[in-house]
Amino acid sequence: METQQSLLLIFLVFLFVESIYGSGHDECSPTFCSLTGPQIRFPFRLRGRQPSHCGFPGFDLSCNKKNQTLFTLPSNHSLVVNHISYASQVISIDPDFCRIERIRDITLAGTPFDFSIEDRYTFVNCSSQVSEFSFQTMPLWFPCLGSVNHSVFAVRTDWIPIGDIPESCENIKTVSVPVRRFDDIRRQLTLMWFRPYCRPCELDGTTCGLKNDDGETACFGSSSDGIPRGTKYGLSIGIGVPALVCIIGIICYISGRARNYNHRQRQSIDLFSIAITPQPPTTTGLDGPTIASYPKTVLGESCRLAKDDGTCPICLSDYKPKEEVRTIPECNHYFHAECIDEWLKLNATCPICRNSPETSSLVTPCSSMSSNSSNTTTQS
Ligand SMILES: *[C@@H]1O[C@H](CO)[C@@H](O)[C@H](O)[C@H]1NC(C)=O
Ligand SMILES: *[C@@H]1O[C@H](CO)[C@@H](O)[C@H](O)[C@H]1NC(C)=O
């Protein structure tokens, strides 16, 4: 009996020490490549410095020798990460077109990032007499690629009217680039991710992390950023030591009577194993026909949406005439159709109010356009 008790005691002390130092020294806590670089935390992780469970598959970052944060595409092409917005689930990367050998296609296939329009740009090398105004549609001027005697421009290929490129210009290359509306490819590309969905944790100030090996995520803890680590240790020792003493006392008392309760223990083990039977996984998104049944409308020329501020809350770009918007019934929130469709495939709830939509009611987003259960074009 005595050895049994002392073994238990050693085990409990071990658990206690482990709980303070194991979780206190958190290998997954936010990190950086440099103090000016973006914060790296779940779903991202720093490869080589943090174990894989700290991040979500596909979100590995690394640091280069200049302490810049890098994301490596499946093509082995590394791009510098300028900024990560965890609440908007957006990552900004530098396409790095200021070095002639780096002007190449950027493809997102095989990455967790999506939601971009793929634009094709043709880079041209012109004599220095040619300016932006020599083109019918304004090109992007890349001073970083030119010199005294020549200038380099990028023209959006699907915008080039026939004969628009001045004769003295020479084609360098045509590349495809994933852009969100109005990204300036000289500065950055902004890419979005939808899974994992950590926005609720970000807004609550809690920590998003993996819940299980199936890639489900959950919010953990309360906002820990304001509490210094020393205080946390102090708290855990102050509360932990008396609690430990109590637990040891209770365990000693119970183990003294353990034999009398053998059959009961067996019963409780059975109950326990029933309680932890895993639940079947559930899918959370909606199917295509359900999504298509939500009201979709094409914006008219002068149409303004009634209550939203003119910006799609998902891709954060403004509504433009002729764009398709979709409404979620019940909550009357509007989104670009392409944005909300992607969203609803993964999540069955409205991204703003998290209501579960129902297909029953139809809404008219604004008076100058009509909306039916599917595509309706309006002129205003
Ligand atoms: C542009 O053309 C000039 C002269 O033809 C050449 O010296 C220069 O290297 C070219 N620049 C690029 C970026 O191709
Ligand atoms: C620019 O052109 C002038 C005259 O054609 C030439 O002397 C000069 O070396 C050129 N400069 C560069 C940087 O190519």
Structure, briefly:
The protein is α+β, with helices and mostly antiparallel strands. The chain is 23% helix and 20% strand. A hairpin with a 4-residue loop joins β4 (78-85) and β5.
What's the CATH H-level superfamily name of the domain at 287-380? Answer: Zinc/RING finger domain, C3HC4 (zinc finger)
Mass-distribution shape: flat
State the helical fraction. 10-25%
CATH class of the domain at 287-380 equals: Alpha Beta
At CATH level 2, the architecture of the domain at 287-380 is: 2-Layer Sandwich
How many alpha or pi helices?
A: 6
CATH topology of the domain at 287-380: Herpes Virus-1
Describe the model.
The protein contains 6 helices and 15 strands. The chain is α+β, with helices and mostly antiparallel strands and 380 residues long. The protein has a domain at 287-380: 2-Layer Sandwich (Herpes Virus-1), CATH 3.30.40. The strands form 4 sheets. Strands 1-2-3-4-5-10 form a 6-stranded mixed beta sheet, with no helix packed on it. A 4-stranded antiparallel beta sheet has the order 7-8-6-9, with no helix packed on it. The radius of gyration is 29 Å and the shape is flat. Bound molecules: 2-acetamido-2-deoxy-beta-D-glucopyranose (2 copies). The site of one 2-acetamido-2-deoxy-beta-D-glucopyranose (NAG) has 6 residues, from strand 8.
